[in-house]
C-alpha cells in the first residue's frame, strides 16, 4: 500500500481534528498497533526499572557538582535518579562526603524511556537551576544517533524546520513552519522545531565520524509547509543517522525522522518498524551520544560522550 500523503486532502482523522481554524498536522496520526505495543513496553520497563541499579560502568563523568551517566534503553529516568545515592555510597571517594551531607540530586535533562544515552544528574539545587536554564536556553549542544528504516535519502546532510504541537488526540505531531504561534485545540500553541541530520551509513556502508565534526549545512535547509510524500512501496534501507536538535521539543528527532520517511527502527509510535528481518524490537533505537556545554560551576567548555550502543556499531560494519 502506498503511504503517499496528499497535502490537499487531509485524512479524515485530521479533518475531524481541525474544526474551525486550527492548524492541520502534517505528520501521520499514531498507528493503531502502537497503543497495544506501547502498553506492553511500558509494563516491561516498569519491571526493569524497579530492579535497576546503576553501576560504575554506567558513569561517564563525575565531579563534586554533577554526575553524567549512560542510561540504558527501556529504563525510566526516575529509576536512574533513584539509584544514584546507592552508587555514591558504594563509591569509596564519596563515602565520607555522603555521610556528612546527602547531595540534593536532580535530573538536569530527561530522555524518553526507550532512548539510551547521556543524562546529567546534579548534586545541588544551585547547580541544577543553572543547568536546567542552560538546557532551556538551548546553550547545550546535543547529538543523537538513530538507526532508521526507509528509502535511502538523496541528501547527506539536511536541516528540517517545522512546527511542533499536540493534536486534539494528545499526540505530538509535525506542523507547518508557518503555523508556529497558532493555537491548537487543547489551548497550547505550535512551537518551532529545528533538527539537523547527517547520514553515517546506509546498509552498513559508511564510517563513524566524531560528533564534534557535525556541521549544519546551510545550503540544505528544508522549511516544512506540506505533508511529506512518501512512497510506501519503495525499497527499504537501513540508515544510521546522527542528529542535532536545535530546539528541545518532545519526541523531536522521532517526529522529524518520521516526516523524512526514515522512521526510527522500533519506534511504533511514529511509523517505525516493529519487526524487521525476523527480529522484533522492544524499543526504538535512539541514543543520546554527546553533550557539549559550559560547566555550570567552572565555566569551562566540556563535552561528554556516551559509548556507542551495539546496534549502532553493527550498522557500521561492512
Describe the structure.
With 318 residues, this protein is α+β, with helices and mostly antiparallel strands. It has a single domain, classed as Pseudouridine synthase (2-Layer Sandwich), CATH 3.30.2350. It has eight helices and 15 strands. It has helices at 12-17, 32-51, 77-82, 84-90, 92-100, 125-136, 252-259, 310-315, and strands at 59-62, 66-71, 106-107, 116-122, 141-150, 157-166, 172-175, 191-202, 205-206, 221-223, 237-245, 275-276, 279-280, 286-294, 301-305. The strands form two sheets. Strands 1, 2, 3, 4, 5, 6, 7, 8, 9, 10, 11, 14 and 15 form a 13-stranded mixed beta sheet that branches. Strands 12-13 form a two-stranded antiparallel sheet. Helix 4 (84-90) crosses helix 5. The longest helix has 20 residues, at 32-51. The model is unreliable at 1-18 (pLDDT under 50).
Short description:
The protein is α+β, with helices and mostly antiparallel strands and 318 residues long. It has helices spanning 12-17, 32-51, 77-82, 84-90, 92-100, 125-136, 252-259, 310-315; strands at 59-62, 66-71, 106-107, 116-122, 141-150, 157-166, 172-175, 191-202, 205-206, 221-223, 237-245, 275-276, 279-280, 286-294, 301-305. It is built from 8 helices and 15 strands.
Main attributes of the structure:
two-stranded antiparallel ribbon; 8 helices; 13-stranded mixed beta sheet; globular; 15 strands; Pseudouridine synthase; disordered N terminus; alpha+beta; 318 residues; single chain
Query: How many β-strand runs?
Result: 15
User: What would the CATH topology be?
Assistant: Pseudouridine synthase
CATH class: Alpha Beta
Question: Structural class of the helices, strands and pairings?
Answer: alpha+beta
> Low-confidence spans: pLDDT under 50, at least 5 residues?
1-18
Strand content: 25-35%
List the total number of helices.
8
Number of domains: 1
Largest sheet: 13 strands, mixed
What is the approximate shape? globular
CATH superfamily, by name, is Pseudouridine synthase
Radius of gyration: 20 Å
Task: Return the string of H and E elements.
Answer: HHEEHHHEEHEEEEEEEHEEEEH
Give the distance, in angstroms, between the N- and C-terminal Cα atoms: 32 Å
Q: From the 3D coordinates, which CATH architecture would you assign?
A: 2-Layer Sandwich
Indicate the mean pLDDT. 87
Specify the helix fraction band.
10-25%
